[in-house]
């Protein structure tokens, strides 16, 4: 009897712990999902997930923080951050978190989002770095992931020419260590589908761990040691100003969150993601050199994948850098790590609660000569082996205005600048205006500034956006952006221009119901599809209409439905359409070890031009934007099970079932039949 | 040659770019999202909008089209309130010396309590082309404004519902027949947001959105967008006692920038 009671009590206890953990995960998941809806389809969210998970465990002390730290919580606008510091400066330290409600710009939604990540208590953990503390108070997070496409694709068959040399399996190992806000370390090892698990088996030396995987990344960082705010050895990212001069990794841009064009520069950060391109490798630090003045020197040496060719002098030259990090075929293997890049420089920053000024200077060099492509549109691209970039950025808060901007210059080449303002027009309306001018010969390898094109050069533009929250239940966002390309572009044989408009209305009368309508229209110019002696430009119009509802039944079941229609029209050709409709069901009972969700989607698009993207739920730390192209059904199921207190397992199965096709995909990814399915398993152990 | 082509070119531009008559620098800077906004220049938009004037007011406006040598638009407006009635006169002249179009009108508006107002306006249009001759016609505008709440206002107006046109065959210019439905949102006494959906029977739907933000008592900042064609608008207003000066710049992807300036004086 006694034993039974004990068992019962134990189960209840586990239930409670599980409940707390699930809620915590769910919170970050919901937040990321709402952010993801507003992002372009190539954004890497794992870094953000990592930050939020960290702050969930180690909340930021609002009375002892800085703008850089708060900017990592991407849902805070720079104006809110600046108002918070102004409030503390005027009224002294915050006594209660409810006080946030009295600060200008802090609406209910922001406060609800912020609460789980902040505190007012000085953290009680002993944070001296000693071996004993590191072992006792450190958090370890280990993730193992395996996945593959179930069908055999053409690349794995015995083809005479190019084929995939490795196996179709994907592996990921990710280990992360954090100790308070003092020490951080990580190790990531990854193998993509089609890559060798072991480095080219013929040449492998099994002595080096890096030979056991295609990609390896890691870092060790020591933080908040006296003047040394951050010291990072290994892989890191640098994000400063408006992303025009020095920004490695991803940056928010134009999105339904109209304030996204104002960059949240978080400075130096350790790199923990599995993306094989977007980081620097070496050593970097941020040092406080005087009151309000920080200096961040950095050095990076890494190898890049580049396709090489030979010029008339017999010299090996680089024509383009490959950012995908895929090394599956002989050709991709040859390009792997073929070019060395050395970057060094520094950033000087002066910051007070209202004003921030920064200066950046760094030098990039390669061991091989870059040659611009032979097409006319490429004539102003970078040529040579060395490049020096300098830049200056600022932000200034005056009353309800937040001004920001950056100037960047590549020495012996072009200039670029971006300036803007974020204005709180009233308690319910805020506006953003951003003007940009990036010269056609502005060269920079770490440029993520707000732009319509994927890279911020050869572009001028003016962006204006409004964010209106007339009441708690209604929210309206709209923006318009006009852009001009003074020089030619890929498939655009003349200077061109275009515009983009977006409006979104959200209605959320209760906590469990939300409806969204979104309209987006984009007009650009492109070479005509007709065969003519000289290409002229045709207008290309793309319009998206989206309607979505999210609702819940009881506490365990959540539902989401979406319908999206895309219209694509080029020149005088008839408009073509793409449709997507899906139903999501999620099951996450508070006291169960099991949770999961499924999606069933029907899509029908006339061609790749009218394709549709949608965010898909996936295993933790993996992010998928589904591509819906062609005609068929898409479905997936995710399951999560808590094996033990600190041990979770995820499983995912996803498939495309196309109508009326004999093969799926193209090139080496072609599959016989009409199905493409994928599975994934992941284990997480926290200790 | 130039003289022969000119009327054709001008009327082309007029048809493609200027379906509406100039609504003054303030409303232009707000993306012409004027259906529910009240201004003296509502005379050229929703005539019910002149009912916010408390004293007699006169205004001048000048817009310069940078692609032409001397192409401009000059406008004059005057509004006189009496009891709950309002009378207004407006004159617009658009063109160059060889080609110009004049629209002159007389409007009457009445407010019924705080929330509702109605206005009508009769216009005479004249087009004059050197060496070709003149053509004249008439048109009517009518509109209504309704305050749904303290923060939300609605407006609806029609231009030329009977589709009057010039009789002369050489004048390609048409008098637009259009319906405009709009709303304003006024969350504070410093800020007006406005939106208007317009349907000209000869063209696609257009949507305009605008903001008027009174930054200081003296200074207003404005901006707007319109969708078809895609245009961006910016402007400022300087309010000094009874004198108001408004400046606006309109940016059109093909035509470029069109600056304009307006002055008004409230007696």
Textual characterization of the structure:
Chain B: This is PorV/PorQ family protein. Chain B: Keywords: Signal. Chain A: This is Helix-hairpin-helix domain-containing protein. Chain A: It comes from Pedobacter helvus. Chain A: Keywords: Signal. The complex is a heterodimer of chains A (687) and B (267). With 687 residues, chain A is mainly β. In chain A, 13% of the residues lie in helices and 48% in strands. Chain A has a domain of 242 residues. Chain A contains seven helices and 32 strands. In chain A, a hairpin with a 3-residue loop joins strand 4 and strand 5. The radius of gyration of chain A is 26 Å and the shape is globular. About 2% of the residues of chain A have low confidence. Chain B is mainly beta. Chain B has one domain: Porin, CATH 2.40.160. Chain B has a 14-stranded antiparallel β-barrel. In chain B, 45% of the residues are buried. Chains A and B meet through strand 17, strand 18, strand 19 and strand 20 of A and strand 8 and strand 10 of B.
How do the strands and helices of this protein lay out in sequence?
The complex is a heterodimer of chains A (687) and B (267).
Chain A: H1 2-36, H2 46-57, E1 60-61, H3 67-71, H4 78-91, H5 108-114, E2 118-119, H6 131-137, E3 139-149, E4 169-179, E5 183-191, E6 215-225, E7 228-239, E8 267-270, E9 280-290, E10 293-310, E11 316-322, H7 330-335, E12 339-351, E13 355-370, E14 384-398, E15 401-410, E16 415-424, E17 429-438, E18 459-468, E19 474-485, E20 496-510, E21 513-527, E22 537-553, E23 557-570, E24 576-587, E25 594-605, E26 612-616, E27 624-628, E28 631-644, E29 647-658, E30 663-664, E31 671-672, E32 675-686
Parallel strand pairs in A: 1-2, 11-13
Antiparallel strand pairs in A: 3-4, 3-32, 4-5, 5-6, 6-7, 7-8, 7-9, 9-10, 10-11, 10-12, 12-13, 13-14, 14-15, 15-16, 16-17, 17-18, 18-19, 19-20, 20-21, 21-22, 22-23, 23-24, 24-25, 25-28, 26-27, 28-29, 29-32, 30-31
Chain B: H1 2-17, H2 24-29, E1 57-64, E2 72-82, E3 85-95, E4 99-112, E5 116-129, E6 133-147, E7 152-159, E8 178-188, E9 191-200, E10 205-214, E11 219-226, E12 231-240, E13 243-252, E14 256-266
Antiparallel strand pairs in B: 1-2, 1-14, 2-3, 3-4, 4-5, 5-6, 6-7, 7-8, 8-9, 9-10, 10-11, 11-12, 12-13, 13-14
């Amino acid at each position: 009897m006694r034993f039974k009671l004990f068992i019962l009590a134990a189960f209840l206890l586990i239930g409670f712990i599980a409940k707390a953990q699930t809620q915590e995960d769910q919170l970050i998941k919901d937040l990321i999902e709402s952010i993801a809806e507003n992002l372009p389809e190539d954004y890497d969210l794992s870094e953000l997930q990592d930050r939020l998970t960290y702050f969930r465990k180690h909340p930021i002390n609002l009375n002892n923080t800085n703008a850089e730290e708060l900017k990592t919580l991407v849902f805070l606008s720079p104006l809110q951050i600046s108002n918070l510091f102004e409030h503390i400066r005027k009224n002294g330290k915050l006594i209660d978190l409810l006080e946030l409600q009295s600060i200008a710009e802090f609406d209910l939604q922001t406060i609800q989002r912020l609460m789980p990540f902040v505190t007012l208590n000085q953290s009680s953990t002993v944070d001296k770095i000693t071996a004993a503390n590191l072992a006792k108070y450190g958090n370890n997070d280990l993730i193992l992931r395996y996945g593959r496409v179930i069908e055999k694709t053409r690349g794995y068959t015995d083809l005479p020419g190019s084929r995939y040399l490795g196996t179709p399996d994907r592996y990921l190992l990710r280990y992360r260590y954090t100790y308070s806000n003092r020490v951080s370390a990580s190790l990531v090892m990854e193998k993509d589908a089609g890559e060798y698990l072991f480095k080219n088996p013929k040449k492998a030396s099994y002595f080096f761990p890096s030979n056991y995987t295609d990609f390896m990344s890691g870092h060790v960082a020591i933080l908040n040691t006296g003047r040394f705010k951050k010291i990072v050895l290994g892989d890191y990212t640098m994000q400063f100003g408006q992303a025009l001069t020095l920004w490695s990794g991803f940056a928010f841009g134009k999105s339904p969150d109209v304030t996204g064009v104002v960059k949240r520069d978080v400075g130096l950060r350790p790199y923990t993601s599995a993306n094989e391109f977007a980081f620097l490798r070496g050593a970097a630090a941020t040092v406080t050199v005087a009151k309000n003045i920080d200096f961040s020197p950095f050095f990076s040496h890494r190898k890049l994948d580049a396709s090489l060719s030979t010029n008339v002098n017999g010299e090996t030259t680089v024509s383009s850098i490959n950012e995908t990090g895929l090394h599956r075929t002989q050709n991709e293997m040859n390009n792997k790590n073929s070019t060395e890049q050395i970057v060094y420089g520094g950033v000087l920053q002066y910051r007070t609660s209202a004003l921030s000024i920064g200066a950046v200077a760094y030098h990039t060099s390669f061991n091989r000569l870059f040659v611009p492509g032979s097409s006319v549109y490429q004539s102003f691209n970078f040529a040579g082996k060395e490049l020096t970039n300098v830049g200056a950025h600022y932000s200034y808060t005056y009353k309800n205005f937040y001004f920001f901007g950056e100037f960047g210059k590549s020495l012996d080449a072009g200039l670029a600048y971006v300036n803007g303002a974020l204005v709180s027009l009233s308690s319910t309306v805020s506006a953003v205006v951003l003007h940009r001018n990036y010269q056609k010969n502005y060269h920079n390898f770490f440029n993520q500034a707000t732009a319509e094109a994927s890279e911020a050069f050869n572009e001028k533009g003016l962006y204006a956006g409004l964010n209106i929250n007339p009441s708690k239940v209604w929210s309206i966002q709209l923006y318009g952006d006009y852009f001009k390309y003074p020089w030619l572009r890929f498939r655009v044989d003349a200077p061109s221009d275009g515009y983009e408009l977006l409006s979104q209305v959200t209605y959320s009368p209760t906590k469990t119901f939300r409806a969204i309508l979104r309209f987006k229209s984009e007009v650009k110019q492109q070479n005509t599809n007709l065969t003519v002696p000289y290409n002229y430009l045709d207008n290309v119009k793309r319009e998206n209409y989206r309607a979505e509802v999210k609702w819940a039944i009881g506490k365990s079941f959540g539902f989401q439905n979406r319908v999206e229609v895309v219209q694509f029209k080029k020149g005088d050709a008839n408009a073509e359409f793409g449709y997507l409709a899906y139903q999501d069901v999620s099951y996450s009972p508070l006291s169960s070890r099991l949770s999961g969700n499924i999606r069933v989607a029907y899509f029908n698009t006339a061609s790749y031009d009218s394709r549709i993207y949608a965010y898909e739920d996936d295993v933790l730390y993996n992010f998928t934007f589904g591509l819906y192209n062609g005609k068929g059904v898409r479905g997936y199921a995710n399951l999560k099970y808590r094996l033990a207190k600190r041990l979770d397992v995820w499983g995912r199965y996803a498939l495309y079932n196309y109508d009326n096709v004999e093969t799926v995909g193209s090139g080496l990814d072609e599959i016989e039949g009409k199905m493409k399915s994928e599975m994934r398993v992941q284990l997480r152990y926290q200790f | 040659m130039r003289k022969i082509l000119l009327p054709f070119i001008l009327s082309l531009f007029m048809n493609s770019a200027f379906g509406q008559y100039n609504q003054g620098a303030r409303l232009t800077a707000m993306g012409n999202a004027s259906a529910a906004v009240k201004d003296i220049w509502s005379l050229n938009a929703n005539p019910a909008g002149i009912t916010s004037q408390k004293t007699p007011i006169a205004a001048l406006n000048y817009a310069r089209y940078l692609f032409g040598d001397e192409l401009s638009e000059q406008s004059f407006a005057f509004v006189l309130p009496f009891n709950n009635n309002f009378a207004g006169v407006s004159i617009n002249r658009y063109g160059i010396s060889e080609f110009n179009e004049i629209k002159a009108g007389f409007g009457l508006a009445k407010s019924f309590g705080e929330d509702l107002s109605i206005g009508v306006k009769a216009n005479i249009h004249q087009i004059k082309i050197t060496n070709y001759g003149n053509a004249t016609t008439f048109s009517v505008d009518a509109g209504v404004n309704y305050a749904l709440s303290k923060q939300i206002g609605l407006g609806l107006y029609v231009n030329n519902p009977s589709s009057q046109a010039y009789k002369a065959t050489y004048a390609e210019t048409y008098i637009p027949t259009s319906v405009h439905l709009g709303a304003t949102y006024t969350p504070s006494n410093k800020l007006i947001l406005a939106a208007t959906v317009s349907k000209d029977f000869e063209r696609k739907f257009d949507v305009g959105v605008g903001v008027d933000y009174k930054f200081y008592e003296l200074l207003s900042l404005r901006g707007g967008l319109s969708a078809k064609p895609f245009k961006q608008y910016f402007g400022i207003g300087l309010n000094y006692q009874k004198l108001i000066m408004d400046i606006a710049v309109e940016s059109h992807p093909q035509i470029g920038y069109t600056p304009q300036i307006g002055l008004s004086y409230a007696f």
